[in-house]
Write a structure and sequence with these properties.
Chain A is of the alpha/beta class and 328 residues long. Chain A is built from 13 helices and 14 strands. In chain A, helix 2 links the parallel strand 2 and strand 3. In chain A, helix 9 packs across helix 13. The radius of gyration of chain A is 20 Å and the shape is globular. The longest helix of chain B is centred in the first third of the chain and has 26 residues. Classes of the chains: A alpha/beta (328), B alpha/beta (333). At the A-B interface, helix 3, helix 5 and helix 6 of A face strand 2, helix 5 and helix 6 of B. The complex binds thiamine diphosphate (TPP) and magnesium ion. Thiamine diphosphate (TPP) binds next to strand 5 of chain B.
């Protein structure tokens, strides 16, 4: 199987879907001539021309809305945000237009549109450029939200997103673009709404997604050295959430830690914990723990930044806590 | 670079046929809205309900310049456009009543009338939020190589919204076949435009975006028709966008919860504007031209009243949506 970076896996998905379906087009800042702010769209302008790879002004609200209108008119737009921090300016179109069009039109107007771009903190980009918005977006009925963590999932989920007849949010990991992995050639589809066990284990479930997958995998390695067998469950989709997969794993391990990039208050982890307490209460041997970003705007200083982020050490500590290994 | 702001004199020879059709359509909107107000007072219509009384010449004049498969997209003050784009009074009234037979299955209401097959792409409730959607429809038509034109109606208050400016810029850069039709009725709820806008001649904004523009008398359906026809030609032939500022006036409150003139405008002002009633004026003209007499006008009115009465009856007798509708159409298959 070919090895690709996460970035090139996304590129391949875009290229293949644009080859397959002439109604698919890419629109966003710097996607064409500049080849993409993160080079995800490299080569696409050359292959598909400016009609289908559309450079926009810096006008997130406007071009997100033009994308929604184009979807109403029968196209399949892929709207790239340079990062999701800037997509805040476009939230009106995502929430008030895209997510509600089908419902408020009584089922008449489908909304096959993808909003994608890097999400979450990279390195030392400070408060305004280091935010993970999944809990905001996953809150909204009428949207689907995916957050791939590996190159193969990036390709398979983006292809599913483009083919979906609903608005799909694709949260890419800014720190994952260079990650390498095996990616199946051609028709590789990952269905939206399916979590995947990325490492099997018996003692504790580490629930994660996107950039917290590598964190959880490292934590699982460290736990293995302490004779703890951790199962790593990658959610992949945040809406719909694969509730069955979460419950299955927790029923097996009886303990869970939820790891996420966002802030703790009203986060994705809170939703997962709600599910577990309601539907797997009797299977639990300890209260579920959460590892999140610190509840502060992201600082610039690299030591402070590291302290704010979820880390393997924090996950190990939380896992030891649910296993009552901390002596408390 | 100048906006071509002008009050056009070059009207095409107004055909009698067209004027009669427009009179009928304006009267239909007027009578429909009067009935909607009645039904609202009776509690048959809920929520926000924004009437179009006074502004009929704008929708009627503009839509007369379109082909059936052209797109129309509107704000929440869209009962008039919906009726003229071909949604039946029954389906519009039933939607206001929240019934299963409404044009949005009772799930949209007054602010979200839709009929995609008729090219009526909705009423939208966020001020200015649908302006980029209009441009997107134009983008799709151009991409698909069709010659469809999109008319996007919005109130003057939307001109203070960022989405308006972002959209006009992109529509001009990308030469989208879209007509941005601003219905300047002077007020956004209770705020007079000049109190909140540095530039009060909205057409002037077209200068910033190197776009064709016209200032239009919105109390005259023929004038609106002519200006829209010119804009449609620009869009259909050359894929050029146009900004139309159509000056009009709403005779009723902002919505059903707002009194007739309120504290933000005087009774005298409203009365003065009512003297410019577009329906009375066109009817008067047709009588003077010997096209119709009072008896013919009365007959037309009676016919329309019966049609609207029937719509109320239909809406009243229609069933509520199934309880299962609550969860339907959140996502498409
Ligand atoms: C973004 C936004 N802010 C506020 C409102 C509440 N609101 C609804 S209509 C309206 C006035 C809009 O006036 P205008 O655009 O001139 O349209 P008109 O009602 O005169 O047709 C306001 C403030 C809204 N719907 N959307
Ligand atoms: Mg107004």
């Amino acid at each position: 199987m070919p090895t690709l970076t996460y970035r090139d896996a996304l590129n391949q998905a875009l290229r293949e879907e644009m080859q397959r379906d002439p109604t698919v087009f890419l629109m966003g800042e710097e996607v064409g001539v500049y080849q993409g702010a993160y080079k995800v769209s490299r080569g696409l302008l050359e292959e598909f021309g400016p009609k289908r790879v559309v450079d926009t002004p810096i006008a997130e609200l406007g071009f997100a809305g033009i994308g929604v209108g184009a979807a109403m008119g029968g196209l399949r737009p892929v709207i790239e945000f340079m990062t999701w921090n800037f997509a805040l300016l476009a939230l009106d179109q995502i929430v008030n237009s895209a997510a509600k069009m089908l419902y408020m039109s009584g089922g008449q107007i489908r909304m096959p549109i993808v909003f994608r771009g890097p999400s979450g903190a990279a390195l030392q980009l400070a408060s305004q450029h280091s935010q993970a918005w999944e809990s905001w977006l996953a809150h909204i009925p009428g949207l689907k939200v995916v957050a791939p963590a590996t190159p193969a999932d990036a390709k398979g989920l983006l292809k599913s997103a483009i083919r979906d007849n609903n608005p799909v949010i694709v949260l890419e990991g800014e720190m994952l673009y260079n990650l390498k992995g095996d990616v199946p050639d051609g028709e590789h589809i990952v269905p939206i709404g399916q979590a995947e066990i990325k490492r099997e284990g018996n003692d504790v479930t580490l629930v994660c997604h996107s950039k917290t997958l590598p964190v959880a995998l490292k934590a699982a390695d460290q736990l293995a050295e302490q004779n703890v067998s951790a199962e790593v469950l990658d959610l992949r989709s945040l809406r719909p959430l694969d509730e069955a997969a979460i419950l299955r794993s927790v029923r097996k391990t009886n303990r869970a830690v939820v790891v996420e990039e966002g802030w703790p208050h009203v986060g994705i982890g809170a939703q997962v914990v709600d599910l577990i307490q309601r539907d797997a209460f009797d299977d639990l041997d300890a209260p579920v723990q959460r590892v999140t970003e610190a509840d502060v705007p992201m600082p610039y200083n690299k030591h402070l930044e590291r302290a704010a982020k979820a880390s393997p050490e924090k996950v190990v500590a939380a896992a030891r806590k649910v296993l009552y290994l901390n002596g408390d | 670079m100048t906006a071509t702001a002008r009050s056009p004199k070059d009207t095409a020879a107004p055909q009698t046929e067209l004027q009669l059709k427009m009179l009928r359509q304006m009267l239909l909107i007027r009578r429909f809205e009067e009935k909607a107000a009645e039904a609202y007072a009776l509690g048959k219509i809920g929520g926000f309900c924004h009437l179009y009384i006074g502004q009929e010449a704008v929708a009627v004049g503009a839509l007369a310049a379109l082909k059936d498969d052209d797109y129309v997209i509107c704000s929440y003050r869209e009962h008039g456009q919906a009726l003229i784009k071909g949604i039946s009074p029954n389906a519009v009234m039933a939607e206001l009543f929240g019934k299963a037979t409404g044009c949005s299955k009772g799930k949209g209401g007054s602010m979200h009338l839709f009929d995609a097959r008729k090219g009526f792409m909705g009423g939208h409730g966020i001020v200015g939020g649908h302006v980029p959607l209009g441009a997107g429809l134009g983008f799709a038509s151009k991409y698909q190589g069709t010659d469809k034109v999109t008319v996007c109606f919005f109130g003057e208050a939307a001109v203070n919204i960022g989405a308006f400016h972002e959209t006009l810029n992109m529509a001009s850069v990308w030469k989208l076949p879209v007509i941005f039709l601003c219905e300047n009725n002077r007020y956004g709820m209770g705020t007079a435009f000049e109190r909140v806008a540095a530039v009060t001649d909205i057409v002037e904004h077209a200068c910033s975006y190197d776009m064709a523009a016209e200032l239009v008398d919105g109390m005259n359906a023929l004038t609106v028709y002519d200006a829209t026809r010119r804009a449609v030609e620009r869009a259909r032939k050359n894929s050029h966008p146009t900004l139309l500022e159509v000056r009009t006036y709403r005779f009723m409150g902002h919505s059903m919860s707002d009194p007739l003139h309120g504290v933000y405008r005087t009774k005298d002002e409203v009365e003065e504007q009512k003297a410019r009633d577009p329906i009375t004026h066109l009817a008067q003209k047709l009588k003077e031209d010997g096209v119709m007499d009072q008896a013919a006008l009365d007959a037309m009115d009676a016919e329309i009243r019966a049609e609207v009465e029937e719509a109320v009856k239909f809406a009243d007798e229609s069933p509520d949506p199934d309880p299962e509708e609550l969860y339907r159409d959140v996502l498409a298959d």
